[in-house]
Amino acid sequence: MGRACWNSLQRTFPDLARAESQSCQPLIVSPPVIREFIWGEVDCRSSVSIFYHLKLDPQERQKRELRRITVTLTVGGWQQGEGGLVDLMADLPKTHQIAQLPNKSEDKDNDKEKEEKDTAPSANQMHRSSSRPQLDVSGAAIQGNFEERNPTILLPNQSDDISHLALDLGGSLIKLVYFSRHEDQPADDKRKKRMKEKLGFSNGTRRYRILGGRLHFVKFETSKVNECLDFISSKQLHRGGKDSPSWCSGTPAGENATIIKATGGGAYKCADIFKERLGVSLDKEDEMDCLVAGANFLLKAIRHEAFTHMEGHKEFVQIDGNDLFPYLLVNIGSGVSMIKVDGDGSFQRVSGTNVGGGTYWGLGRLLTKCKSFDELLELSQRGDNRAVDMLVGDIYGGMDYSKIGLSASTIASSFGKTVSENKELSDYRPEDISLSLLRMISYNIGQISYLNALRYGIKRIFFGGFFIRGHAYTMDTISFAVHFWSQGQAQAMFLRHEGFLGALGAFMSYEKHGLDDLMAHQLVERFPMGAPYVGGRIHGPPLGDLNEKISWMEKFVQKGTEIIAPVPMVPPGTTGVGGFERPSSRGDSLRSDASTLNIGVLHLVPTLEVFPLLADPKAYEPNTVDLSDHGELEYWFTVLKEHLPDLVDKAVASEGGTDDAKRRGDAFARAFSAHLARLMEEPAAYGKLGLANLLELREECLREFQFFDAYRTIKQRENEASLAVLPDLLMELDGLDEEARLLSLIEGVLAANIFDWGSRACVDLYHKGTIIEIYRMSRKKMQRPWRVDDFDMFKERILGSGELKAKPLKRALLFVDNSGADVVLGMLPLAREFLRRGTEVVLVANSLPALNDLTANELPEIVAEAAKHCDILRKAAEAGGLIVDAMINIQDSPKEHSSSIAPLMVVENGCGSPCIDFRQVSSELAAAAKEADLIILEGMGRSLHTNFNARFKCDALKLAMVKNQRLAEKLVQGNIYDCVCRYERAS
Ligand SMILES: CC(C)(COP(=O)(O)O)[C@@H](O)C(=O)NCCC(=O)O
Ligand SMILES: [Mn+2]
What we know:
Layout: H1 3-12, E1 34-44, E2 47-55, E3 64-72, H2 81-91, E4 96-97, H3 107-118, H4 123-129, E5 140-143, E6 152-154, E7 161-169, E8 173-181, H5 190-199, E9 213-221, H6 225-234, E10 258-263, H7 266-269, H8 271-278, E11 280-284, H9 287-301, E12 306-310, E13 313-316, E14 327-332, E15 336-343, E16 346-353, H10 357-368, H11 373-380, E17 390-391, H12 392-395, E18 411-413, H13 417-420, H14 430-455, E19 460-464, H15 472-485, E20 491-495, H16 501-508, E21 523-526, E22 536-537, H17 546-564, E23 601-604, E24 608-609, H18 630-654, H19 659-681, H20 691-704, H21 712-734, H22 738-752, H23 760-766, H24 771-780, E25 788-789, H25 791-799, E26 811-815, H26 821-836, E27 840-845, H27 859-867, H28 871-879, E28 904-908, E29 921-922, H29 923-929, E30 934-938, H30 940-945, E31 955-961, H31 965-972, E32 979-984
Parallel strand pairs: 3-5, 7-10, 9-22, 10-11, 14-19, 19-20, 25-32, 26-27, 26-30, 27-28, 30-31
Antiparallel strand pairs: 1-2, 1-4, 2-3, 5-6, 7-8, 8-9, 9-23, 12-13, 12-20, 14-15, 15-16, 17-18, 21-23, 24-29, 31-32
Helix pairs in contact: 9-16, 10-14, 11-14, 14-15, 17-19, 18-19, 19-20, 21-26, 22-26, 27-28
Manganese (II) ion (MN) binds at residues 756, 817-818, 851, 853, 914, 939, 941.
């Protein structure tokens, strides 16, 4: 066999294996660090173990390690099977030198690849290979359809594909921002390709390949630089990413050193240790440039980045990227810089103060003996500054100085009380000293900032830098100062990624990384999920694989209670009018480390766009239920908590109920509960919180623990049962006149929306009856008028009224919801009605599974199945490229259908949640929307929890059954199982 099988191996594993020359066939596993191939052995029919030597550093011979990879092949497309594998291994020399595998995605690299094929591997090439990521192929397995020719291989133990890293090496903290790419769905997805052709959309004329991935934020104390280096090394962050040569570290081809962008003083101070330990050079970027670039990026690209913080109340501010400048950026690090920012790259450092974070920490350390900044901050939580500060009341015998607007509790002089008291330092409580210091410095910074804003006529002041640390008291003090001195005219705003401005700016300074034209809608924040480095703070060693994540999660339970425990309460503060009062946050439940879980991972999803039919994208708010109301939050928190055991059961069963699945299920439940508890404590922890975010968080969390489709079996079963009933339903419908048919169709959609595995009431129903029994019962209950009933208006638009004929609709977008009856007996018959009227229909379904919602990938098969019983659906699906004629066995052919066939198409919506946020939809949906004159939103998630109040540029029909008593009462003043049929004309 030899050659043939080897070729086949290359085809099957284009990234894993490749022959380098005619005479010898070295095995390349990743663009790797493997130097010597040792031997291979076949474990069983489907797996092969390959042993190899790994040299971590070619210079250091002793750093050799024997490793083993097991490549699991459930052989599809590879005909040779077991014998081939054995032969292949027999063919390979026992020990073999391996060459660097050139990157195959770039033309110039292909040329180089040819060159390298022609020459024997040199020491230099081998050295270059060490700047590539190490690929962990242990447990590798073919994913998906085994019959496919080039199946994807899942590397379960491979950490993210790291592509980029930038650093801000500050005096007290090292901040890291790194990007990890994530694989998009396979590019050769047939449905997607066809939709691209049909809808004629493209990704424009970008110079660089569009990347999808995540931006991560991590911080370390500068004194623990070795931990930082370990982290970088363990995650191989300093190595360029796979397939990313055009933006990889800016290293000219052929040069050995990897270059990492860095800013902050440590970029100079720590250069040697980075070179020594990681072999990388730090490319220094100007600190101010980076701060401004980072702030501009965040303010333009991240929706809930800026917020105000007054008296313990946090409120997110919607920043209009087109109306951002000028603003004052106050960066509070060890010292303080005040920068007037006029545009991208256009700024001036107008002022600063040497009294900053370093002052607080330095003086605090001397005066209190605290060992860390955080300890000092923590201490302040329990302090009472009246013990050291001289108050107005101390001077005026307990009275206000009301003539000039100062109350008795106003600080007249920070630390002033200690002058008149004959006490030693040890006579004062460290808590009181810490608080007095904190107030003195924060207030001073707030005041100077405002004066500078005034000097330049600037209204908006953004405060950043790690001094703030999401600390409620600090923010309140600064806000108070700005508010007080500006008499309410100026507002202090804070940034969620406050400490990462510099690192982000350094990250943005990489040329040609393809991220420079990021748009607001392309970056979506996802919640930090079960990782040890949530919110930029390391809570444990870096996690290599899912297994570690699970065990970390198990430990997190103990850690979690610590994390979410509220700070001890303090005695109520003094009050009064005017002057500098004690901000109130100290007494509520905000913790000193409130920032710990504040930062989500930013997901770069290049294909997401704003839905073009939104009437007013700027005013659009997807959530109907606002969870900043504590009562609401508590209610939905309980609903989700109670649903958890059932969800875990389904998730575990969907993965075969194995021990591993059970362990993951348990870890998922813990992770999700911890997030819920965290949000109960501080609802704004991850940004503005609505019900849709909670429901999405749950799905994200499931995926994090590798439950990709918990309701898979249920969905299949319900689809089959419903498809069996469909021919009868279609016959029944065809026997009705137009008007009765339209009504029956809408009733059908509403009735079938009862099949919802996310609703507690519906899950209870499932235990009582069969699918068909529930469906019949639900249909019987469809008495009009429904709770919201605009049917007549809708009917008039579709059928016209009296003599007046209705204007034909060009294209309808039908946002489908649940699998089974919901789509098969509800939405598909409705789609068929539009098609027979000559209206093009685009079925819009989820990109990723969420509960029992249908996905766009599942739809073509269901349509094809339904089309077997219906000529209209068949022809439309053919016209829409959903099915090919040969597959279909025609059973009915109604007389009436138009000669020019309106197509039936399917697009994905870009979401993996039961709700939809129209600020971020897939580009294929955005393209399909352009010609649409009607949208139909179906289901509670998409038309009630979200978008109930949304207005569109075209007509919109919102259809749902309310399957929750409280929502029914609150939203439509009705009862559970009431129906909503809301029709709104274009606005
Ligand atoms: C998750 C859902 C929005 C899904 O509803 P759908 O969009 O499928 O109609 C809904 O089931 C829900 O709000 N459930 C939680 C409320 C409850 O259990 O009563
Ligand atoms: Mn649903």
